[in-house]
Design goal:
Elements (H helix, E strand, L loop, with lengths): L5 H5 L23 H5 L13 H4 L10 E17 L21 E3 L4 E13 L2 E8 L4 E4 L12 E17 L2 E20 L1 H7 L14 E21 L4 E8 L2 E12 L16 E9 L2 E9 L4 E10 L6 E6 L14 E4 L5 E11 L4 E10 L18 E11 L4 E12 L2 E6 L10 E20 L1
């Protein structure tokens, strides 16, 4: 067996799609205001504060000059219970990691997500603004020795989105448009079953210990890319408003490095150029989202709202990673591309919210949402993204200190459907194609706060 093309096999896990337990579908983060979270983000047509820059930039025409800062503490749990993970079929499909008596894990990882917005009047009915958000990210972090370590150990995604926008109101209609400069940074780690690989190559058991001579892979990469968003709001009556918005997909060309740790006893595996540090690249598109929304003031105290959004995750059918091979010792071409099949599907999110204005200073918020996962099956679900359909229940409160200053607080609890996984690691080297079989039991709690200043 040649080991020339092993490198793609150990790094086929998603490079950019590393964020398990993201809070919207796939690896998106919808936490872009605390006021919005109190209504489960049903208020896209509400245009209540400067966070409308993200949800529908046309809403800036309803605002005074304003600055807003928000933060969200996201606390996921992702408890994994093994139900029969096995080694690769070519190795007999025996119990994976039989010496591990604790066949559970929790990969949930807390995160702090910030937002910042600014709206300024240029002239009557013409506004400009800037939103700074974190639209994609979060991650998982398992112990280095957990049963699924060959599928993933650590997955970190950090993003930053700069969104300058402009909005204009003409009669009963408002129009908004924004540009987006988006940065993404990714770090992935996973173990490599070098003991099994060594044995498959015919070396004696005294040299090789399957699942006992683990190596380690660390991938990191980053990218800047650009997109746009736009929206429209229409006043049906003085109390009813309809909205529509679209946020474009953004094509990222991620570049970075692949670093490998090889046990000293198995250092000979690097002799033909495999498991040597190299550079990598991957092209990935983050999806487009289109939303329609409704807002109504029922009376002086109660308002209701609804939002329906579609996200085009179906564009993500596979992830292909290309490797440079500057250290080749045999004159063969660079490492083959690695491919991870995803076959994700488009998702829908539907949300309903209600506000109750108890007094001039106190406003209470309520919301519920149903949020689909793009992962089509247990076979396509990975330890890095073990997401499933989820239900949001939210509550929030806003206190108006005076005409200029307000403070909002919100809490959300997300229940996630029980999530089976039966994922076989895709590799160009069949002995590494172990199958992770189990179930995730997950939930998420979120606490959000924001301050707003009108000037």
């Amino acid at each position: 067996m040649k080991i020339k093309n092993i490198l793609p096999a150990v790094a086929t896990a998603s490079l950019l799609m590393a964020s398990a337990q993201s809070i919207a579908s796939g690896f998106a983060i919808i936490e872009n205001s605390a006021s919005g979270m109190g209504n489960a983000y049903a208020g896209g047509a509400g245009a209540e504060d400067a966070s409308t820059i993200w949800f529908n930039p046309a809403g800036m025409t309803y605002l005074d000059n304003e600055m807003l800062a928000a933060g969200h503490i996201i606390m996921p749990t992702a408890e994994y219970i093994d139900t029969g993970s096995t080694t690769a079929a070519i190795m007999g499909a025996t119990t994976l990691d039989p010496a591990n008596t604790d066949r559970t894990a929790d990969g949930g990882k807390n995160a702090l997500i910030p937002n910042l917005y600014w709206v300024k009047e240029i002239q009557k009915d013409l506004k400009m603004g800037l939103g700074i958000t974190v639209p994609f990210g979060l991650g998982t972090d398992y112990d280095d020795d957990w049963v699924g370590r060959y599928h993933g150990v650590k997955s970190d995604v950090m993003s930053l989105n700069l969104n300058p926008s402009i909005a204009y109101k003409k009669g009963n209609a408002s129009f908004g448009f924004g540009l987006n400069a988006q940065y993404i940074k990714v770090e992935l780690t996973s173990a490599i079953d070098m003991g099994t690989l060594c044995a498959a190559l015919g070396f004696p058991p005294s040299t090789c210990t399957p699942q006992g001579n683990d190596g380690f892979a660390e991938l990191d990469g980053d990218s800047w890319a650009y997109g746009y968003n736009f929206g429209v709001l229409f006043d049906v009556t003085s109390d009813i408003r309809l909205g529509a918005s679209h946020r474009s997909s953004i094509d990222h060309d991620v570049t970075g490095n692949a670093d490998f740790t090889v046990p000293g006893a198995l250092s000979f595996l690097t002799s033909t150029g495999s498991f040597l540090d190299t550079t990598l690249s991957a092209s990935v598109s983050v999806p487009a989202t289109t939303s329609i929304s409704y807002f109504q003031n029922v009376n002086e105290k109660i308002s209701i709202m609804a939002d329906y959004s579609i996200t085009t995750w179906s564009d993500f059918q596979e992830l292909r990673i290309a490797y440079d091979d500057p250290n080749s010792t045999d004159g063969l071409p660079a490492q083959d591309d690695s491919v991870t099949t995803q076959e994700w599907e488009d998702t829908a999110r539907i949300a309903f919210g209600m506000n109750y204005k108890a007094s001039a200073k106190w406003l209470y918020r309520f919301g519920i949402a149903l949020d689909q996962s793009p992962v089509p099956s247990a076979e396509r679900r990975t330890a890095r993204i073990p997401g499933n359909d989820r239900t949001w229940l939210t509550f929030g409160v806003t206190h108006q200190f005076d005409k200029e200053r307000s403070f909002s607080f919100a809490y959300a609890h997300l229940t996630v459907d029980d999530t089976p996984i039966n994922n076989t690691f895709e590799a160009s080297t069949p002995v590494l194609e172990h199958t992770l079989s189990g179930e995730y039991q997950a939930s998420v709690d979120i606490i959000s706060a924001q301050v707003s200043w009108k000037y």
